[in-house]
Amino acid sequence: MSGNRNTFFSSSPSGWWRRALTRAAQGGWNWMKEVGAVTADHPGRLDFRRLGQGTRLAFPQGTVFGESWIELGDHCIIGEQVTLTAGMMPGLDLGPEPILTLGNGVVLGRGSHVIADTRVVIGSDTYCGPYVYITSTNHSYDDPHQPVGKQWPRTEPVEIGPGCWLGTGAVVLPGARLGRNVVVAAGSVVRGEVPDHSVVAGAPARVVRSWDAEHGWQPPLRTPAPVPIPEGVTPEELLALAEWEKSQEG
């Protein structure tokens, strides 16, 4: 009998018992994600210089420190495991001005990092895919006799203009200045100046497409323009249409 009990408890749960455990685990995790999210009304232990209305940091958060020098605009979406830091380490006095600023409506995808040892500004309505890395600091390797990690790093401000899109895994290096509505291809490494309305790709990133009022996009776009949503259509009608299209596929 004792052996049977040991076999039962050491084996993996199955059937209704497994389904009950799964539902309980998923329900508990969803509850933790809800109560663990950081908002202006429920900031928890994080004391940001500014945490805008409608902004939400998903749970679990990544490494966050130097909040007194971090300003987050309104209606930002900060994904799970996103790192936001101001200063090289916690507990430093960084002066009277903000170090890291996100404008209104900024989106940082899951696992992204924004490392601001000096000024970093991300303009309003800039969207970042998962695992984007933005940093104002880079290692130096001037002394060939010292380990790179022990040499004092270099810092330069970073500025990303409004309305940009940074694809998955993009890296923005110290000193980069991106203009308005810049598209950064996935996996690109950006440094230096990027003009407004450009598409950059590669490592290091180079301009592969640009727009101006006289010639439009050059080289011309190869994909058809998206069909605009007719005026007056409500979100409820769009959802109903999506459900109808799904039913037709079945």
Automatic annotation (TrEMBL):
Annotated keywords: Acyltransferase, Repeat, Transferase
Source taxon at top rank: Bacteria
Database matches in Pfam families: Hexapep
GO molecular function: acyltransferase activity
Family annotation (InterPro entries): Hexapep, Hexapep_transf_CS, Hexapeptide_acetyltransf, Trimer_LpxA-like_sf
Family recorded in the similarity comment: Belongs to the transferase hexapeptide repeat family.
Name of the protein in its database record: Acyltransferase
Source organism (scientific name): Streptomyces albipurpureus
